[in-house]
Specification:
single chain; mainly alpha; 6 helices; about 75% helix; globular
Length: about 170
Protein backbone atom coordinates (compact mmCIF):
# COMPACT_ATOMS: atom_id res chain seq x y z
CA UNK A 1 0.00 0.00 0.00
CA UNK A 2 2.87 2.33 0.76
CA UNK A 3 4.17 1.75 -2.75
CA UNK A 4 0.85 2.75 -4.33
CA UNK A 5 0.79 5.97 -2.30
CA UNK A 6 4.21 6.83 -3.63
CA UNK A 7 3.07 6.24 -7.19
CA UNK A 8 -0.06 8.36 -6.91
CA UNK A 9 1.80 11.26 -5.35
CA UNK A 10 4.57 11.18 -7.91
CA UNK A 11 4.58 14.23 -10.24
CA UNK A 12 5.21 11.92 -13.21
CA UNK A 13 1.96 9.97 -12.83
CA UNK A 14 -1.04 11.52 -14.55
CA UNK A 15 -4.69 10.84 -14.06
CA UNK A 16 -6.59 9.69 -17.15
CA UNK A 17 -9.02 12.57 -16.50
CA UNK A 18 -6.29 15.16 -17.05
CA UNK A 19 -6.32 14.47 -20.79
CA UNK A 20 -10.11 14.82 -20.90
CA UNK A 21 -9.85 18.25 -19.31
CA UNK A 22 -7.15 19.30 -21.73
CA UNK A 23 -9.20 18.08 -24.69
CA UNK A 24 -12.27 20.06 -23.61
CA UNK A 25 -10.14 23.18 -23.12
CA UNK A 26 -8.75 22.72 -26.64
CA UNK A 27 -12.27 22.22 -28.01
CA UNK A 28 -13.46 25.37 -26.24
CA UNK A 29 -10.48 27.33 -27.54
CA UNK A 30 -11.53 26.37 -31.08
CA UNK A 31 -15.24 26.98 -30.45
CA UNK A 32 -15.11 30.76 -30.04
CA UNK A 33 -13.04 31.50 -33.16
CA UNK A 34 -15.17 29.09 -35.21
CA UNK A 35 -18.40 30.66 -33.95
CA UNK A 36 -17.01 34.15 -34.64
CA UNK A 37 -16.14 33.15 -38.21
CA UNK A 38 -19.55 31.59 -38.84
CA UNK A 39 -21.55 34.50 -37.41
CA UNK A 40 -19.26 37.03 -39.09
CA UNK A 41 -19.66 35.27 -42.44
CA UNK A 42 -23.46 35.25 -42.08
CA UNK A 43 -23.52 39.00 -41.53
CA UNK A 44 -21.03 39.67 -44.33
CA UNK A 45 -23.15 37.56 -46.69
CA UNK A 46 -26.37 39.31 -45.65
CA UNK A 47 -24.70 42.73 -45.87
CA UNK A 48 -23.24 42.10 -49.34
CA UNK A 49 -26.63 40.96 -50.66
CA UNK A 50 -28.27 44.14 -49.34
CA UNK A 51 -25.43 46.43 -50.46
CA UNK A 52 -25.61 44.92 -53.94
CA UNK A 53 -29.16 46.23 -54.43
CA UNK A 54 -29.95 48.93 -51.84
CA UNK A 55 -33.15 49.93 -53.66
CA UNK A 56 -34.61 46.43 -53.23
CA UNK A 57 -33.51 46.51 -49.60
CA UNK A 58 -35.21 49.90 -49.15
CA UNK A 59 -38.39 48.32 -50.53
CA UNK A 60 -38.03 45.47 -48.03
CA UNK A 61 -37.60 48.01 -45.20
CA UNK A 62 -40.69 49.87 -46.40
CA UNK A 63 -42.77 46.67 -46.13
CA UNK A 64 -42.35 46.80 -42.34
CA UNK A 65 -44.25 50.13 -42.31
CA UNK A 66 -42.16 51.47 -39.44
CA UNK A 67 -39.88 54.06 -41.10
CA UNK A 68 -40.70 56.73 -43.62
CA UNK A 69 -39.48 55.90 -47.13
CA UNK A 70 -36.70 58.57 -47.14
CA UNK A 71 -35.37 57.31 -43.80
CA UNK A 72 -35.71 53.69 -44.94
CA UNK A 73 -33.71 54.59 -48.07
CA UNK A 74 -30.90 56.00 -45.92
CA UNK A 75 -30.92 52.91 -43.75
CA UNK A 76 -30.79 50.73 -46.88
CA UNK A 77 -27.60 52.45 -48.02
CA UNK A 78 -25.75 52.44 -44.66
CA UNK A 79 -26.93 49.37 -42.74
CA UNK A 80 -25.43 46.77 -45.13
CA UNK A 81 -21.98 48.33 -44.78
CA UNK A 82 -22.31 48.34 -41.00
CA UNK A 83 -23.17 44.63 -41.11
CA UNK A 84 -20.21 43.92 -43.38
CA UNK A 85 -17.78 45.84 -41.16
CA UNK A 86 -19.09 44.18 -38.00
CA UNK A 87 -18.88 40.75 -39.66
CA UNK A 88 -15.27 41.46 -40.61
CA UNK A 89 -14.53 42.61 -37.06
CA UNK A 90 -15.86 39.28 -35.73
CA UNK A 91 -13.68 37.31 -38.11
CA UNK A 92 -10.51 39.39 -37.72
CA UNK A 93 -10.93 39.82 -33.98
CA UNK A 94 -10.38 43.57 -33.86
CA UNK A 95 -13.12 45.57 -32.11
CA UNK A 96 -14.97 42.29 -31.54
CA UNK A 97 -16.93 43.42 -28.46
CA UNK A 98 -18.23 46.49 -30.30
CA UNK A 99 -19.22 44.39 -33.31
CA UNK A 100 -21.04 41.91 -31.08
CA UNK A 101 -22.90 44.73 -29.33
CA UNK A 102 -23.91 46.43 -32.59
CA UNK A 103 -25.00 43.20 -34.28
CA UNK A 104 -26.85 42.09 -31.16
CA UNK A 105 -28.70 45.40 -31.04
CA UNK A 106 -29.56 45.16 -34.74
CA UNK A 107 -30.85 41.61 -34.27
CA UNK A 108 -33.03 42.63 -31.32
CA UNK A 109 -34.50 45.56 -33.28
CA UNK A 110 -35.06 43.41 -36.37
CA UNK A 111 -36.67 40.59 -34.37
CA UNK A 112 -39.02 43.01 -32.60
CA UNK A 113 -39.87 44.68 -35.94
CA UNK A 114 -40.62 41.28 -37.49
CA UNK A 115 -42.88 40.26 -34.60
CA UNK A 116 -44.62 43.66 -34.66
CA UNK A 117 -45.22 43.37 -38.41
CA UNK A 118 -46.69 39.91 -37.99
CA UNK A 119 -48.91 41.12 -35.12
CA UNK A 120 -50.22 43.89 -37.41
CA UNK A 121 -51.04 41.32 -40.07
CA UNK A 122 -48.20 42.26 -42.41
CA UNK A 123 -46.88 39.21 -44.26
CA UNK A 124 -43.38 39.98 -45.44
CA UNK A 125 -40.20 38.52 -46.81
CA UNK A 126 -37.44 40.36 -45.00
CA UNK A 127 -34.93 40.16 -47.86
CA UNK A 128 -32.02 39.76 -45.46
CA UNK A 129 -30.59 36.76 -47.25
CA UNK A 130 -31.71 37.51 -50.79
CA UNK A 131 -33.37 34.69 -52.70
CA UNK A 132 -32.19 32.17 -50.07
CA UNK A 133 -34.52 33.72 -47.47
CA UNK A 134 -37.48 34.31 -49.75
CA UNK A 135 -40.35 31.96 -49.11
CA UNK A 136 -39.30 31.08 -45.57
CA UNK A 137 -42.18 31.29 -43.17
CA UNK A 138 -42.46 33.50 -40.12
CA UNK A 139 -41.40 30.66 -37.80
CA UNK A 140 -38.28 29.90 -39.87
CA UNK A 141 -37.30 33.59 -39.84
CA UNK A 142 -37.74 33.74 -36.07
CA UNK A 143 -35.68 30.58 -35.58
CA UNK A 144 -32.86 32.09 -37.63
CA UNK A 145 -33.11 35.37 -35.69
CA UNK A 146 -33.05 33.61 -32.32
CA UNK A 147 -30.17 31.36 -33.41
CA UNK A 148 -28.13 34.42 -34.42
CA UNK A 149 -29.06 36.17 -31.17
CA UNK A 150 -28.01 33.09 -29.17
CA UNK A 151 -24.72 32.90 -31.07
CA UNK A 152 -24.04 36.60 -30.46
CA UNK A 153 -24.89 36.20 -26.78
CA UNK A 154 -22.54 33.20 -26.54
CA UNK A 155 -19.79 35.24 -28.24
CA UNK A 156 -20.43 38.15 -25.85
CA UNK A 157 -20.14 35.88 -22.81
CA UNK A 158 -17.13 34.03 -24.26
CA UNK A 159 -15.42 37.30 -25.16
CA UNK A 160 -16.10 38.77 -21.72
CA UNK A 161 -14.58 35.69 -20.02
CA UNK A 162 -11.53 35.74 -22.31
CA UNK A 163 -10.87 39.48 -21.95
CA UNK A 164 -8.60 40.52 -19.13
CA UNK A 165 -10.25 42.66 -16.45
CA UNK A 166 -9.01 46.23 -16.62
CA UNK A 167 -8.93 48.55 -13.68
CA UNK A 168 -9.08 52.32 -13.80
CA UNK A 169 -5.77 52.49 -11.94
CA UNK A 170 -3.86 51.13 -14.96
Amino acid sequence: MAGSEEMSSSPHVQSPLMNVQRGSVAARSLLWPALSIIVGAVFIYAGVLKAWDPFAFAKDIDHFRILSYPLGMRVAFYLPWLEILCGLALIVGRLRSGAIAILGGLMVVFTIATIAAKARGIDLDCGCFGSVGKGLGFTAHLLIDFALLAALLALWIGHAKASPVRSDAE
